Task: structure prediction
Amino acid sequence: MTAYASLAAAYDGLTGDIPYAQVLDFLEAVLRQEGKRPKSVLDLACGTGSMSLLLAQRGYQVLASDISEEMLTQAAAKAADMGDRAPYFIHQPMQRLRLPIPVDAVFCLLDSLNYLTQPEDCKKTLHRVFEALSSGGVFLFDINTPEKLYALDGQVFLDENEDSYCVWRADFDTEENCCYYGIDLFSRRGDLWSRSFEQHCEYAYDPQTLCLWLQEAGFTMVRCFGDRRMEPPRSGEQRIYFYAEKPATEE
Result:
């Protein structure tokens, strides 16, 4: 079963602790620091659209893409009452991203880039994002650091609410440089419970390597930040944010 096929319907209920507003506050602080005021934004790997909707509510023109049809179905349902402000959702894999019009900024959050388990796909994505940006556009994304993924090896996590019970088991494969998550999901169906299983995988990307690949894709002004802090990452950082610019061309 593909990632998020079964988990999509339960995702929002199990991840209510994700601080979307605080993440966006941080991203906007970075943009202000860099003198950027984007009007149009692509929410790359948008999932169930929580950040996409928040972006639209703050006045951005929003495109949103994801590889999971099930997650996009949830996102579209959440945006159904937004009228003309609703994000425009696109079903695409990151490494084959192609937009109808360029955007001023691309956000790729919640370690979505780690889900590209082949380095070549990651490189392709960086190039596709570069092409999708308008002149002077910016790319902001985060990753789970290798240190975090290494430490997850052998860990078991439980998430639950009234309608769902989820067990995550993590295993880090050193040869593949990947952390695998085996996810057992139990969903309430009336008086009964339905069980499903998914396997997710995240690649442990080295931050310095990503900075090099960004530059090779054409980006400049590449910067790294700690987890929602306006300063460089610390040793042992669990999550790192990246900022990169597409050079502005003279008109």
